[in-house]
Amino acid sequence: MLKKSEAVRVVGSRRWTVGDPKGEQASIGGPQSRQAYALIHLRVTQGMRNSAYFGMTELCSPKPGETVVISGAAGAVGSLAGQIAKIQGARVIGFAGSDAKVDWLVSDCGFDKAFNYKKISVLEALKTAAPKGVDCYFDNVGGEMTADVISCMNSYGRVAACGSIANYNADRSKPVLVPDYHLNVIIKQIKMEGFLVQRWLGPKWIQGIHQLAEWINQGKIVPRETVTNGFLNVPSAFIAMLKGDNIGKAVVTV
Ligand SMILES: NC(=O)c1ccc[n+]([C@@H]2O[C@H](COP(=O)([O-])OP(=O)(O)OC[C@H]3O[C@@H](n4cnc5c(N)ncnc54)[C@H](OP(=O)(O)O)[C@@H]3O)[C@@H](O)[C@H]2O)c1
Question: Which segments constitute the Enoyl reductase (ER) domain (predicted)?
Answer without folding.
Answer: 4-252
